[in-house]
Structure formats: structure tokens, C-alpha cells
Amino acid sequence: MSPPFARRSTDRAGGGAVPTRAEGAIDLHYSATPNGQKVAIMLEELGLSYRVTPYDIFEGDHLTEEFGRINPNYKLPAIVDREPDDGAGPITVFESGAILQYLADKYGAFLAPRGRERSAAIQWLTWQVAGLGPMGGQASHFLRYAPPGQEYGIERYRRELDRLLRVLNKRLEESAYVAGPDYTIADMAIWPGRAASFVVGIGLETYPAIHRWFEAVRVRPAVERVMTHPDLAAPGRYLGRTQKLSEREWSNMFGDRMHGAVD
């Protein structure tokens, strides 16, 4: 399915609009992290028109009262559906896993409506958002941002990431896709996390079944569009193995300004 790439982007959240194409019903509040890319992949797979509002998380674009009304947790991504099925006005959805499930249910795609196939997809989606994603994120944090002398944290989360990847590899030894024979939102949720493996120096070729699956997903047209489109692909700063933040950037990402946004 070839989507219309209907988007309107901004230079940054709150910046001036930069018109690109016709508007769609979904507004995607976006940063090019693995969590954001999950949702972008789903929108592309569905072939929907949508608008992208990009946020620079290093600059703290997401730590505003306006965005807090969309996501009270002040994290990205989030969507606003301006044409929900109930017709009761726009609905906001935050948390990447919840967004994937919302879109799958609304459009009847990439998630079975009932039964064991649906249960398997929801289980692996939950496994990603509760386990693989947070553990990979913590491993990346200690390697990329933490001050020197964090060997315990690095080892703790790197080993747990390796354990979880072995769980995934075993699953993919017996199944073409994560939840079964069909490509689902569980695959979309897990696939972008290859960034964490890269950052911590774990090569996916170490896990043959994951590598086979990763390549099968990588060449899907929707995935290729996300990974190459300038509105959606991750800039180098999001992928580098080490990062040195200014005091302001640290405050926006991990410090006082980030914590103070919820006050």
C-alpha cells in the first residue's frame, strides 16, 4: 500500500509551520527515537495521511504546558486523532504501545480482532514496552550519558539486554514473525530498538533468527520510508554511542527541567 505522505511539519514544536502536503486526520507528535519510529512505521503501513510535529528533546520542546495537555507524562510520541470513530471530538493517545493498539483496532489491521493470535501479539507488545525497551534504554543511557565510573549500571543493563535478545531469538527460531506467521504491531514495536543494540555494541548477527527477521522487516516499503524520510529518520545525535550534553540539555533530558514539567 502506497501512502500519500500527507504531512505538515514544523521546524520544531511551537515553530512556524512548513507546509508539505495535504493534511490528514492524525497528528503525530514526534521525536525520531525508537518509540517514535514505531508509530511512524504503523502510520506508513496503514497508508494514512498524517501530520508530523517534530520535537527536539535535547532542547526540551516537549516540556511545555501545551504538550502536557496531550501527554501528561511529557514523553514522546503521542498522537491526536481528530476524527475518532465515536465522533465526539479529537482524542489524544500517548505511550507507543497504546498508540499502536489504538490504530490497529481503529483501522482493523496488524492485530487480530480476537483469539489467540491477538493475545500473542499483545503479549509480545507488552514484553517490548515493559522489558526490552526499558532495558535497552537504560543500557544506552549508562553508556551514552552517564558520568565515568558506571560499570555496574553498564554491566547490569547490558546483560539484561542480552538475555532479552536471546528470548527474542528463541521465539524467532520457531516463528516467522514475533507473534506468529503474520507481521503485526508486535514486530513494529520491537524492530526500531536495534538502535539500543548498536549503542551497546551488540551485533544482531550474534542472534541468527533475529538477524533474519530484522532484514525481512527492514526491506518493507513502509519501514524504508520511515528510515529514509527527512521528517522521520533519526539524526546522528540520536544514534551516537557517546554524547556530551550541556547543562541545559542535561536538565531537559534527565534533570530539573524534565522533572519540574509535571509540577
From TrEMBL:
Q: Which domain of life is it from?
A: Bacteria
All residue ranges annotated as the GST N-terminal domain in the record:
23-111
| Source species taxonomy | Bacteria, Pseudomonadati, Pseudomonadota, Alphaproteobacteria, Sphingomonadales
Q: Which PANTHER family match?
A: GLUTATHIONE S-TRANSFERASE GSTA, GLUTATHIONE S-TRANSFERASE-RELATED
Q: To which species is this protein native?
A: Parasphingopyxis lamellibrachiae
Name this polypeptide is given: GST-like protein
The GST C-terminal domain is annotated at: 114-234
Q: Which Gene3D superfamilies match?
A: 1.20.1050.10, Glutaredoxin (3.40.30.10)
Pfam family name, one: GST_C
